[in-house]
# Entry
Amino acid sequence: MKSLRTGFFVGVLYIIAHTTYAQQAGQGNFNTFCAVCHSISKGKLIGPDLADVHLRRSDAWLLEFITSSQTMINKGDADAVALFNEYNKTLMPDAPYSADQIKDIINYIKSKSPSYVATTETTIASEPVEPAEPVRSVNEATEEEIQFGELLFTGNTRLAAKGPSCMSCHHVKNNRLVGGGLLAKDLTDAYSRMDEAGIKAILTAPPFPAMREAYQYNSISEDEAYALTAFLKYADEEQYGQTPRDWQQYFLAAGGASFLLLLGVFSLVWSKRKKNAVNKKIFDRQVYS
Ligand code: HEC
Ligand code: HEC
# Structure
């Protein structure tokens, strides 16, 4: 009788220990790989908020999607395709985990979801909410910081940890840059698509295999990530005045002769270090006269 009871307790202990272990593993993997793009109850990041995702999708669907979302999308799964389109065809990388590890992650997401928390609230005290660290927004970036970001992007200034320049894989449309890699996405409008937090998160812990490989052992520092994000914001906002074709149109409109005249005016104005607005006034006068 006694040994039976001991056995029972050991069994219960084992189950508790095992569950806790699995949940911790799920939490760890979620934080290292998924949290860059997903929150649970803290709103949309690059991907959807995963709170209560198990109420809208089956466990089998979740396992398959997290294992390889692109495989599912290519097979034509209606829900997966709809979601992919809703998120502007943003690629979710395949999880580098076994099926069991992914199940642990799913359980962790469930355990953090409002529906689960509501049913257990009475027994489990809710965790204290960490106060958000004050982060300096890139809206406050100085021209020097934007320029530093540009130099890092092009590789004219090397990243402190000697990782490859962004331009070796990416391109940004901007008069100040020439060329750029075509291996990965054009980043001209990356800032509008994923915002400050998204870009910084990608730079601190790149979720894409090629990029993770490139910066795994030479990670990008916080200051560098800040400058790069500031530069991408600048490039995004300036993109419409930046295509070489625009200059060609001005050129045609102004005509060859007045272009030469303009060149003179420009160099005069620039030598006096006047700002854009002055340039534009003189320029417009020339065009319409
Ligand atoms: C690089 C960003 C990124 C990473 C990393 C990422 N996801 Fe996603 N996830 C997305 C995007 C974007 C979507 C929307 C669908 C799409 O575009 O393919 C999505 C969709 C989902 C969905 C479907 C949500 C719904 O509303 O049905 C689940 C579940 C999910 N992700 C879980 C995970 C898990 C778990 C991990 C970590 C193992 C992870 N994701 C890692 C970007 C990411
Ligand atoms: C070795 C190649 C490589 C290098 C170097 C690289 N990236 Fe990437 N990056 C990728 C790949 C691959 C993706 C996944 C999306 C794709 O296929 O374009 C990506 C995605 C991104 C995204 C998300 C794009 C989107 O719209 O979904 C951002 C932002 C980004 N990179 C910024 C940078 C910055 C800034 C640097 C320089 C510090 C950098 N990358 C260096 C390969 C690279």
About this structure: Residues 121-126, 244-261 have pLDDT under 50 and may be disordered. Residues 90-91, 164, 166, 168-170, 183-185, 187, 190, 193, 199, 202-203, 208, 210-211, 214, 220, 228 surround heme C (ligand 2) (CB under 6 Å).
